[in-house]
Amino acid sequence: MNGVVKGIFIAREQGSPAEPQQTVEAVADCGLRGDRYFDDTGTFSGREIATDITLIEKEAITAVEREYTISLDPGVHRRNIVVEGVALNHFVDQPLTVGGATMVGHELCEPCSHLEQMLEQEGVRDALIHRGGLRGRIVDSGSIAVGDSVTPNE
Fold first, then answer.
1. Is residue 153 part of a domain?
2. More confident residue, 107 or 40
3. In terms of pLDDT, which residue wins out, 71 or 98?
4. Which of 9, 59, 110, 139 could join 18 via S-S bond, C-beta 3.0 to 4.6 A?
């Protein structure tokens, strides 16, 4: 069940557009260097559940666009890493290596009304329920690049 990193996105400030990256530095217990959550300035900063990193499946994005005729242009989903070939919902409380970094999934990254308001597309929240990705904590620092492997830790 190995996958691949298809996209990397960083939003430098709360509410700012997510910018595509080719590589990013993942820092244990901090997040992705340059991202709003690294500096504790994101919408959900300060929660007990870690928001170091968020991932979403490319397959989920494609399905939402097809089934709901909603456009999810790259990065508008507000998730940091787009992966392909990995069923993320299986990694709650499980370790996962993404490029050179290791993370542990904490919870499903269910969509919120904040996302729907930012996108100004009615129905996005419902469309992404149970396929909004995974929120996790980075436990081992490392670099992540587009094209890197995504590997479950046995």
1. no
2. 107
3. 98
4. 9
Half-sphere exposure of 38 (CA within 13 A, CB side): 16
- What is the pLDDT at residue 103? 97
Number of domains observed in the structure of the chain: 1
Does a structural domain hold residue 154?
no
More confident residue, 41 or 90: 90
Q: What is the DSSP letter of 140?
A: E
Q: Mean pLDDT throughout 4-22?
A: 90
- Percent above pLDDT 70 for the chain: 86
User: CA 148 to CA 83: how far, in whole Å?
Assistant: 10
Give the neighbor-by-neighbor strand order of the sheet with 23-27: 31-32, 23-27, 142-145
Residue listed under structure tokens 């919870």: 107
* Joined tokens for residue 20: 């595509």
DSSP code, position 92: B
Angle at 23 between CA 6 and CA 110, to 5 degrees: 50
* Alpha carbons 146 and 79: distance in angstroms, whole number: 14
10: in domain: yes
With residue 99 as reference, give the H or E element that holds it. Answer: none
Whole-model pTM over 0.85: yes
